[in-house]
Amino acid sequence: MIKVYSRYGIGIAIVLIAYFLLLKLVGLHQYPVLSAVNGLIFGAGIYMAMKKYSERKRNFKYEKGFEVGLLSGGIASILFTLFMAIYMYQIDTEFAENIMNAWNLEYDMGTLMLLLSILIMGFSTTLVLTLAFMQLLKKSWNTQDGNRNTL
User: Fold this and answer.
1) Contact 7, 53 (CB under 8 A)
2) Do 42 and 98 form a contact (C-beta atoms < 8 A)?
3) Which of 23, 123, 38 is nearest to 77 (CA)?
4) Rounded to the nearest 10 degrees, what angle do helices 95-102 and 110-137 cross at?
5) Burial of residue 115 (number of CB atoms within 10 Å: 0-12, 13-18, 19+)
6) φ, ψ of residue 138 in degrees (nearest 5)
7) Between the CA of residue 91 and those of 23, 30, 68, what are the distances in Å?
8) Membrane-spanning residues where (predicted)?
């Protein structure tokens, strides 16, 4: 299981970084609305990780699938936040200031607040998508075999 969520977590992070760098290349990285695509990237990666794990295990348990989804998304969130920290503090120091000015905030929260926002958005996206995908992948009790599990 460690191989599954670490491989997919790193893969999600690589795709997120590549998407951000592509936006930077085109000049659209200043628009936060384009980060909505990050949810699609998270969704595809988490779903593929959970699907891969469920195919490997004959007895697929809800808890283990939930763990795979949370950990793969969590690893991706942390790695992407680390990349953004390096990018904002070392490569493009004006990026965070431009984003904060675009939000018309009257107080200076700094780069750290933007990094915290990226991390929280990654974790919350991971949680919601994991809950949604587990509904698709879990075994249903609405079968003949599941009827014995009712009162």
Assistant:
1) no
2) no
3) 123
4) 80
5) middle
6) -75, 160
7) 15, 15, 33
8) 7-25, 31-50, 70-89, 109-134
How is residue 84 written in tokens?
């953004």
pTM comes to 0.82
Q: What is the CA radius of gyration of the chain?
A: 19
How far CA 67 is from CA of 30, 50, 118, 131, in Å, comes to: 34, 9, 21, 11
Contact 67, 3 (CB under 8 A): no
Convert the pLDDT of each residue in 72-127 to its tens digit: 999 999 999 999 999 888 888 777 777 776 666 656 667 787 888 889 999 999 99
Alpha-carbon gap, residue 114 to 22, rounded angstroms: 20
* Closest to 123 measured CA to CA, from 86, 115, 138: 115
